[in-house]
## 1
Amino acid sequence: MATLLGSEKLSFFDLNEQQKAILFDIRLPRILLGACVGASLALAGASLQSLLRNPLAEPYLLGVSNGAALGTMLAFVFFTQFEFARPVMAFIGASLATFVVYQMAKSRAGMNVERLVLSGVIVTTFLSSIIVLLTSLLDAAKLRSFTFWLLGDLSQSTINGFYLSFAAVIIGTIVLMRYARALNLMMIGERDAFDFGVEVNKTRLAIFATSSLLVGTAVAASGSVGYVGLIVPHLVRLAIGSDNRLVIPFSALAGAVFVVLADTIARVAIAPRELPVGAITALIGAPLFIYLLRK
Amino acid sequence: MLKVQNITIGYGVCKVVKDTSFTLQNGEILAIVGANGAGKTTLLRALNGTLPLMKGEILLDGKIIKDYSRREIAQKIAVVAQENETKFPVTVLEFVLSGRFAHGTGFGWETSGDLQIAENALKICDLANYKNRLMNQLSGGERQIIILARALATQAKILLLDEPTTNLDLAHQAMMFRLVRERCQSCECSAIIITHDLNLASEFADEILLLKTGKMIAKGKSEEVLSAVNLREVFDVEVLLDAHPKSGKPRITVDFGN
């Protein structure tokens, strides 16, 4: 249905060739990719929250998305000729950002909510400033599309981007489901998990790698769509409780639906002009973040 | 059976536990007693392989503990530690079921057997009607009993309890010790309990291990270990000793000198 919502009213049954082309070559990849991006970000959010025992952990807030964005941007500037350089560099950027935030947030006394969020803020702003410095290397036309992309933008979707993102979602879901029960224990406490038989280090590495893969491919495809990883798992937990064996698959589904809806709003809200989808998700996510922080 | 051979545990140059050896027989309850900072928790945490040893060995059923996987250790040893508050809405039943992790497979959903074991653990702890309540809405004392229920649900042969009665009222302190005692008697299980309550230790433990700044001062029956001389050395206080009117075990009262 989202395929048909647009700035002009049309009937599905009498489309001309040009309109069909728009529907199948532009709209459809955009929706499919949006669904994958939503699923990826929600999966990454749900698993990072359980792993770090923190309902506020979210790829965008932890700086993971910005790490991926910086990676993508470096690929954009230096390796323009290779199509897959962007997701690969995004994955590397996301992994590095995850590692740095985790190291900063960890202390001898363990990790508390405030420390983690602060570390995320520091890494996010630091990476942002590097991104801004790099944008000075771009010409004006590239700069505009890049700024839009940075805010989370699905308007450049291609079917290849979808295939890659879809593969990441499938791999990510399988790995996370494999660790879902271990995450249930990690959510209670790292020491508890260790005492009751979880290989804590292995689990942490698997979750960090998987979430970096998911965030990396999502960001390479659509920029930093913020707060999806915060909103979606939170609503899913409200609905079905916090067993990760349910939270993970349902977050993927709900994340897909959420981003497709948000992108449809972004497309039609001030039609014929478009908003970046990240603006819509942040509009919903930021108040929820404040609510969760005060809880 | 757990055999501790001459172990030293520490961080860097600081040795927290020094040259300690003891054996925990099947069916035995051992209480570890000592002043704050004596290394009790460090010792307990080393026993399930959480902390690396600087020296010595720990043998679990005749095999060095390092040679077990986490899952294998968790099947044999269960821990009742100070609670860790969770921000997620975890139900009591889910919490207790997490004790069955080591018996499941990777993708694992609990079997009906796991569910039955968990519900039974809640039942013997008098918490059967708590199973659908949320952990973060309970009191500290209620959570402490649930932590015991989770340990019982593992069906491990060895229980390690770190100050399990801190948040508990008198009735629940007694219940905690009674449940541990029953478990040890009914299935040849053994338990190691850290406690500051010398009278509960005296009453319920088969043996008492007295620890002072990482060194074992004494180990044996409560009558031998809980002497005025030993307690003065460890806690630097004067105590009055008499006997429990029913069991005859030593009863300790601090002498404030007035």
Note: The interface with chain A takes residues 48, 50, 69-71, 73-75, 78-79, 81, 84, 86-91, 94-95, 98-99, 101-102, 104, 106-109, 150, 154 of chain B (CB under 8 Å).
## 2
Amino acid sequence: MLDSTPDGLNFGESPLLRTIGLTKRYGDFLANDSIDIDIWPGEIHALLGENGAGKSTLVKAIYGLIQPSAGEIRWQGKRIVLSGPSEARKRGIGMVFQHFSLFDNLTVAENVALGLDGRESFNDMSARLAQVSKTYGLPLDPKREVWQLSVGERQRIEIVRALMQDPKFLILDEPTAVLTPQEADQLFIVLERLRAEGRAILYISHKLEEVKRLCDTATILRGGRKVETCDPRRETAASLARMMVGGEIKEVKAAAGRTTTVPRLVVNDLSLAPGEAHGVRLEHISFELKGGEILGIAGVAGNGQDELFAALSGERLSKDPGTVVIEGIAAGHLSITERRKLGAAFVPEERLGHGTAPRMKLSENALLTGHAASGMVHRGFINTAAALKTVDRATETFDVRKAKRDPEAASLSGGNLQKFIVGREILRNPAVLVVSQPTWGVDAGAAAVIRQALLDLATAGAAVLVTSQDLDELAEIADRIAVIFHGRLSAPLAASEATREKLGLLMGGSSLEPKEAAHAVGA
Amino acid sequence: MQLVLEKRAERSGTIALVSPLIAIGLTIATMVILFAILGKNPLLALHAYFIAPLTDGYSLQEIAVKATPLVMIAIGLSLCYLANAWNIGAEGQFLIGAVAGSWIAVRTQGTDAGAWVLPVMLVLAAAAGALYALIPAICKVKFGASEILTSLMLVYVADLFLDYLVRGPWRDPHGFNFPTTAEFDPVATVPLLIEGGRLHFGSILALLVVAAAAILLGRTIKGFEIRVVGAAPRAARFGGFKADRLIILTFAVSGALAGLAGIIEVAGPVGHLQPGISPGYGFTAIIVAFLGRLNPLGILIAGLFLALTFIGGEQAQITMKIPLDVTKVFQGILLFYVLACDSLILYRFKLVFPNRQVTSGAG
């Protein structure tokens, strides 16, 4: 059973789940092109691929959420057609999604009850919930309401809910994307235990080190096709990346002689009440960012990153002007347009609907952030030629690939749109750039271009603030890294000292000083 | 084999132009069925509706006269709708404009007031329409009240207010107790373009409004602001545009245009203030705005088309005894099809052949 080449010599036995020629077509687009995959009991099988490689489509088909256009799925050797997720669950297929489906205002137990198909009483269910969470070391307080829980705890609900159905096969979609390194380690212990019990796990990820450490088999998808099935422990991270990308990835290089200059973005004791229910309150955030410097802000999603971005950009105003100082000018009370005029530029996390108007042309989206300061508007009239020129320059400088000169934003791929958005802001020569999740859901090639652009911008003297959940990204480009937790920002660590362990502790809300650490863990 | 709706990568420009035509085609097909059920000859009815009005000069002028308020109101509404502000109460703003302008006409009646009367009437009507439209806009911005409901309800307030005035204080003493003001003096009347005809100066104004709206939406940053606030509110805020201010502005502009249309109607074709000065222009203009794709030029064409249905409806009533309400049915069906066909801009139909699956052998 623990054969390291499960494709091979398993005569007489059939895999738990097998897809043969599985194809899913959306219009002219082949999201999955004839994919064969075998999953054996007692293995953790990694599904690797870049954004848009077809991973989600494949697991949705296996979980019964979509019907394949062609090909078949075999479960324990027999062909099945799944009418929907509930049938998949009945057969023993469980799934934990990247985006949780939980009701914020209900308790843990109520959420679990809602997700189960069974007819047991609420009390029996609660007892079973307590037992499963104890057995697998996934502590949960069934009476707490979900909005009070951290992202890691919310994920635990989803996992426990899936385990309560006693699945033979569990699909996990990028489970560590929202976890601190320490939380991820705990998750791996749970997964290894599930494997030892003979369950199969399909583990979707793009974190290669993790896959090498945890998984027995890896199937790599690229552009909707299966590239290879291999043993990740015998590969290097670089060789896995090559298979995912289909070529070498450009190395990001920092210029050698980067010097810091004057403070260009200063935040003084910024506190801000949340704008919406269950939002995060920003508390006493202070930092100073000099020209030529990149400050990274790490943290688990939902700890105040969005609120901090809104406060820095001016989408939410602060009563006290001195809380945000841009280029030496108190700007806490200034609108986003006035802050742009001071030399600030912003790139939000959401590309479609926040960074761009999806159904508008790129030239109009250039105008969206450029109308105040870039000569695109004369006496209220739009200079279309100037807006188009910005599109052309961004296209050329940042290698934006698109079907025509000025398409709608929504028609670009994630990576190309992100290159356009970052390019649009960098071409304005900002003194301060605030970027949220610059390479989230972006292919490796585009991610390298964007990271390089941020480094080059800092080299040219701008102050760059990068919020990211990707610690590797921050390690690659940031000079200093601070961690945001529950709306509070830690003191920044020099990148050389910011180990995964230290950042992980801060991301989990612990303090780094040994004496206090003991307290924090106890609390 | 099954028919599915499939999302397009980019909105189809061709369909955006063709979709109103498809809607009109479907509406006419439905009307043919309706006429047949009513026991009328569908071909004759269609001829009365759409062909006959185009064949004589009087009817052509009348189409332009009817299109004038429709186009003016619809241009204002299109600005609201583009900005995601739902002004349904143009009818009320139209009536209030008519009332406010008429106030000057009534006050100066029989005096030797000069040429200033009509311009003041127009300005006052526009201002009153704008202020009346600001009520739902401010309720929306300050208290979050649904502008759809408040603007609609204010239509009935305006309607009854006008009714009160012409039955009470402003009633023509020599009018045999009819609920109407006296005929306006010549200085309080919109001049005709053709001596002895029906076409009046208001139609020129409507064309100017269309041109101004085209420039506003196509060339200016304010027009861009209107479009982006409606299309992507969060992106608009990121761009530095304030949706609340824009709701106020677009409501005020559309109220002003509706008020202007109101006084032009009263001081033009009608000649005095009375109940029933509008056959529902403020509501029909909603159809005009959508049929014209919220585009100024499109609205001009759509306004002429719907004016044609008004004239045709009268013609059909006279020649074929088809009830005038059928015109309203026609307009309603048309709006329904226009909105339905709009989904084809972002989606397309596709025939799908499912794979050869032996579903019975499943499991």
Note: The interface with chain A takes residues 6-7, 9-11, 219-222, 224, 227-228, 231-232, 234-240, 350, 354-355, 357, 359, 361-363 of chain B (CB under 8 Å).
## 3
Amino acid sequence: MATASATQERAAELNVLSRKQRSLWGDALYRLFRNKAAVAGLIVIAMAFLVAIFAPFLAPFSPIEIPKNPASQMEPLWTGSKFTDPRYLLGTDFLGRDIVSRLIFASRISMVVGFVPTAIVFGLGVTVGVTAGFFGGWLDQLLMRFTDIVYAFPDFLFLLIIVASFRASPFGKLLDGLMLIFVAIAIVGWVGVARLTRGQVLALKEREFVEAARSVGATPRRIMAKHLLPNALAPLIVTAAFVVPNAMLGEATLSFLGVGIIPPTPSWGQMINEGFPLFSANPWAVLLPAICISVVMLSFTFVGDGLRDALDPRMKT
Amino acid sequence: MLKYTIRRLLLMIPTLFFVALITFALAKAAPGSPFDKNPDKPPKQEIVDRWNKFYGLDKPVPEQFVMYMSNVLHLDFGTSIRRQRPVSEILGQGFPVTAQLGAQALILALAVALPLGVISALKQNTMVDYGSLFFATVGTTIPSFVMAIFFIYIFALGLHLFPITGWGTPQHMVMPTVILALGAAAFLARITRASMLEAIRQDYVRTARSKGLREQVVIVGHVLKNAMIPVATVVGPAAAGLITGSFIIETFFSVPGIGREYVLSITALDYPVIMATTLLYAFFIVVANLSVDLVYGMLDPRIKVAK
């Protein structure tokens, strides 16, 4: 008898249908959380978010105010040099401002620049891409010609020209220059998303489930929203995971070149720009923001790679 | 094939025209003038007027654009406002430097990426593979100027192996070349690995093995030959990326190429230089994209270019 029940148990184990059922998205989530690098990336991003939100409570000093009588530029405590001060864990910058506080506040810029332009890019890109792909016609032609031009423009050059042109205007000074960076990144970025969405829609609209929907009298709007978009979603999510760090990279590079965030508001790229002339004297004022950029960007790449593998295992390379 | 090539070459013209138009419009929309860089000491109005006349800035904007474009057709790119010298002369001096930097970086990138990609595909899921994947991820993710900071800290400030800035001697060229190559190498290694893995699983490879060919012959003659097709097609964009990516590296290391000139003229609103450099960059990208499509058709007869 014992062997019989053991056999039954074994059979139940093997029975795939008795496995707890997961939805398509649940399955993807499960695969994502099994990817250690992606989970580590998610944790870092979540922490960066918390730091950005609670910056005023975490920062020991003001990131902007210059101390009354700053001593010479301080080095981080662990260097053990005579230019250290126990109040300044990571030292001070060339104006005597606390680097910990500046790094903490700078994370706000990176997080906001990562997500706001991405939202605009996707709102615009997906709308135009779905419409162009579904209806074709002049909108489609216009989109394709426009992408040809934008593709001939090196991304960053385009970004640089837009920002440099409008930096001195009143609009360029809104929100310490953030507004212009948002708009510039969105203008440069939406075309790629539109083209990707259009390609997805073109491939999907010939499929049988769309024909079936059409044959039962679904309106074009319903087909787009209920049939095309959900099926095109996976590659779009993966793209988003790479658009976000790209936007951060754009801001960091602009600020590094001195045409990004307007000082004294700190951003990591701008801290590198300000600290670089004194790099050999106090390398940590430059290395620390460089490390912050690297860690956050790597985290996004890990999450992006994880998402790609999780959402479409066939794409795995 | 010839018809397709000609059609594509003709399509380059409107693309470059619109790139010029957008750049011109943006440069014109910029507030401020290239002549009042020092707000404390604004130049006399009569001097500004004379300058405006010299650069043709007293005419209406559309007329300026038409004039500029017709000059460009005669390969006259105007005079730099910042440096008071013909733009063609400035670009002529900077271009060999940028081209050398780009060519060195491309050769280095290929020399690293191809073996790395091939080996990691042949030893899939081993430590070698994970190591090269990690290199590829880091190389494509970390921005070049951030990478440059780490390199300077280690190799210039720490080990005193290379000078930080400048150009001319081989020691000066090592760091800019390596950092510029890194991104491209990582990208190419990724593509090489993926396309090797794809080729290894093909039926013709199984056929070759079943005929009893030696593994070496199968890998070199069948797998490698086919896996190189997608790689060859991305070398063009990678090269274009190197040329445009060089302006951050050139600015960082004070390399006297056209990239650094570009960044300097952008902050000075020196738009004759901005226009000419943008057009040059756009031209490279368009040519790179076109060459990809043509090379693809030649390497892989399964793909039909003409439609």
Note: Residues 215-253 of chain B form the longest helix (39 residues).
